[in-house]
Amino acid sequence: METVQLDKKRHNRKDFDCEVDALNEYLHSMASQHSVKDNTRTYVLENSENPSDIVAFPMVIVDAKDGVVEFYEKFEFSPFLNEENKLYLPIATIRSNFAG
């Protein structure tokens, strides 16, 4: 499996289901639009045997502007070890925060 940027021409978004309606809807209809507008980038975990098959949408990743990393850390984002301005938040954390 490999983490790659979502490509609407290559990835089958229609059959993807992470059991979180809002995230499914975002991946199905908004992620590509946001990428084209240069608002966000969506990364997916794809099946190496069938690259069109998205097998996971494991986290939210942000590229924070200089000086705002602390803002994201308040919401439980964690920085990557080798890129301090790139942070991630696991979907499991989002689910637990909404289950509240």
Task: Summarize the structure in words.
The chain is an alpha+beta fold. 30% of the residues lie in helices and 32% in strands. The protein contains three helices and six strands. A three-stranded antiparallel beta sheet has the order 1-2-3, with no helix packed on it. A three-stranded antiparallel beta sheet has the order 4-6-5. The longest helix has 16 residues, at 21-36. The chain is globular and about 40 Å long. The relative contact order is 0.17.
Describe what is shown at a glance:
The protein has helices spanning about 20-35, 70-75, 90-100, and strands at about 1-5, 45, 50-55, 60-65, 80, 85-90. With about 100 residues, the protein is α+β, with helices and mostly antiparallel strands. Strand 5 and strand 6 form a beta hairpin.
Classify the helix fraction into a percent range: 25-40%
The SSE string, one letter per element, is: EHEEEHEEH
- Detail the poorly predicted runs: none
Strand content: 25-35%
Assembly annotation: single chain
Q: Total helix count?
A: 3
Instruction: Sketch the major β-sheet.
Output: 3 strands, antiparallel
What is the general shape? globular
The tally of strands reads 6
- Rg on CA atoms, Å: 14 Å
Q: What is the averaged pLDDT score?
A: 80
| Main sheet strand line-up | 1-2-3
